UniProtKB/TrEMBL annotation:
This is adenosylhomocysteine nucleosidase. Pfam families: PNP_UDP_1. Pathway: Amino-acid biosynthesis; L-methionine biosynthesis via salvage pathway; S-methyl-5-thio-alpha-D-ribose 1-phosphate from S-methyl-5'-thioadenosine (hydrolase route): step 1/2. Residues 3-242 form the Nucleoside phosphorylase domain. The keyword Lipid metabolism does not apply. It is an enzyme of class 3 (hydrolase).
């Protein structure tokens, strides 16, 4: 049994690597995979997909075909869409959808052709474990982040949400575009660029999948400023703390 933690960018899983033992770095498909052990108890592979659905799908396929991974978690940041999903909150996906999939009129909008579905469900046990771990972090946030960072990113008011996560090959950085997504997909909590592609690959192979996202921006006209700052200051630590709580539970 081997678990993979994927993120698009190194900042999104900064800190996790230092917790692995017996680490070796393996190159495959133009990427470096960090293979190690967690607390001497389980095999863990850390992977960086880079940005976008195709890059994420290549990485997920390599993890399964070459590294024999049997469970996968995507972790990183996302733009908040749902009411009350604000910067510093955490979203654990219940299901994932590709918001830019549109083969209409051949298939209903968002439906993935020949899969007869527009959503891929996350593994319920993994999602429940990550949700509990995120709630644990929320209660102990003051122990892990300095007051100025907590203030700047609203971490003292961190909310943990569970629901629909949407992915597409667009960085959403305009309030009217975010609003259009909300109107089209009112259940969407947050938007990013990878998870639904990985969910589809995992569905194809029968590999349990979960996705965890910290909200870096509101997918509005300020998103391109908020995103990089949050990435450096908070993203990696959130992933590390939540994954650590989940695996040690
Ligand atoms: N990841 C983080 N913020 C995002 C946004 N606004 N759009 C797409 N992906 C994101």
């Amino acid at each position: 049994m081997s678990l993979a933690i994927l993120s698009a960018l190194p900042q999104e899983q900064a800190g996790l690597r230092a917790l692995l033992t017996d680490v070796s770095v393996v190159s495959r498909a133009g990427r470096e995979f960090c293979v190690g052990r967690w607390r001497d108890q389980q095999d863990l592979v850390l992977a960086l997909s880079r940005i976008g659905k195709v890059a994420a799908a290549t990485t997920a396929t390599t993890l399964i075909e070459h590294f024999g991974v049997t469970r996968m978690v995507f972790s990183g940041v996302a733009g908040g869409l749902g009411p009350g999903v604000t910067v510093g909150d955490v979203v654990v996906a219940r299901d994932c959808l590709q918001h830019d999939m549109d083969a209409s009129p051949l298939f209903p909008r968002h439906e993935v052709p020949l899969y007869a579905r527009d959503r891929f469900a996350c593994d319920a046990d993994m999602a429940a474990g990550l949700l509990a771990a995120a709630q644990g972090l929320r209660e102990g946030v003051a122990q892990h982040f300095e007051a100025p960072v907590r203030q700047q990113y609203g971490l003292d008011a961190m909310q943990v949400h569970s629901g629909l996560l949407i992915s597409g090959d667009r960085f959403v950085s305009a309030a009217d575009e975010a609003q259009a997504l909300v109107q089209r997909l009112p259940q969407a909590l947050a938007v990013e660029m990878e998870a639904a592609a990985v969910a589809q690959v995992c569905h194809d192979y029968g590999v349990p999948f979960a996705a965890l996202r910290t909200i870096s921006d509101r997918a509005d006209d300020q998103a391109h400023v908020d995103f990089p700052a949050f990435l450096e200051a908070v993203a990696g630590r959130c992933t590390t703390l939540i994954v650590q709580r989940w695996l040690d539970a």
